[in-house]
TrEMBL record:
It comes from Sagittula stellata (strain ATCC 700073 / DSM 11524 / E-37). Keywords: Oxidoreductase. InterPro entries: NAD(P)-bd_dom_sf, Sc_DH/Rdtase_CS, SDR_fam. Belongs to the short-chain dehydrogenases/reductases (SDR) family. Pfam families: adh_short. GO terms for molecular function: oxidoreductase activity. This is Short-chain dehydrogenase/reductase SDR.
Length: 253
């Protein structure tokens, strides 16, 4: 799919992977709608790239539905939807003090998994109503899993479960939407230099980087955005999860 002139939705577009993706898509000529819980951050990014912003809680279907409708009204129906919004809360199933983390698990599933599903559902419905492009495509959905779906660490049961489900639904969603010309892909990033990482002490970051074989560094969010564009540009990529991780395999802790 040629990106120029297309309407794109990016969730979590105010920071991190989402911000890099919004910038790259805009640079490629897309009209970008930024959906983020941080309304002020989304508005700032929209001003920077010439897009639009909608304060959105992806964990609430009504909020997603309203946001997609607003993007459609102001920019047009989307052909591109990239879900980067998510949370990375950590907690043991049973803590050392015996406390349970069921509330953390439920919140993580709601934001990461249900949020991704809501965005995919509402965006894909709009894509399916569009006329196909010359390639036969009507749209592309790119969801964000994580290497934690395969390499989940202690304390990441909730996060790994949410990202594992995102990875698992990629193929059946792609198969379901194939007749309508909508492709579905997932990216599983490794250790990236995002705001979450920037808040850690340097010695902690150094310990994390020590596990990355090559390149021996944290990933750059721009590299995630680059892969999004490569997926959009490659029509035979469909129904797959791509690890973007510098060959890292996370240890148990």
């Amino acid at each position: 799919m040629k990106i120029a002139g297309q309407v794109a939705i990016v969730t979590g577009g105010a920071s991190g992977l989402g911000a890099a993706t919004a910038r790259r898509l805009a640079a490629e000529g897309a009209k970008v709608g930024i959906l983020d819980f941080d309304g002020d951050g989304a508005a700032a990014m929209a001003r920077e790239i010439g897009g639009m912003a909608v304060k959105t809680d992806v964990g609430l279907e009504a909020s997603v539905a309203d946001a997609v409708a607003e993007v459609k009204q102001r920019l047009g129906a989307p052909r591109i939807a990239v879900s980067c919004a998510g949370i990375g809360l950590a907690g043991r199933v049973v803590g050392r003090d015996g406390a349970l983390s069921t509330d953390l698990f439920e919140k993580t599933i709601r934001v990461n998994l249900m949020g991704t599903y809501y965005v995919m559902s509402h965006a894909a419905r709009e894509m399916m109503a569009l006329e196909p492009l010359e390639s036969g495509e009507r749209g592309v959905v790119v969801n964000t899993a994580s290497v934690a779906y395969e390499d989940g660490q202690i304390g990441q049961v909730a996060y790994s479960a949410s990202k594992g489900a995102i990875a698992s639904m990629c193929l059946p969603a792609a198969r379901e939407m194939a007749k309508q010309g909508v492709r579905v892909m997932a990216i599983a990033p490794g250790l990236f230099n995002t705001p979450m990482m920037e808040g850690l002490p340097q010695e902690t970051v150094d310990g994390i980087v020590a596990n990355v074989p090559f390149p021996h560094r944290l990933g750059d969010p721009a590299e995630y955005a680059q892969l999004v564009c490569q997926i959009l540009d490659s029509p035979y990529l469909n129904g797959s999860v791509i690890r973007l991780d510098g060959a890292v395999r996370l240890p148990q802790r």
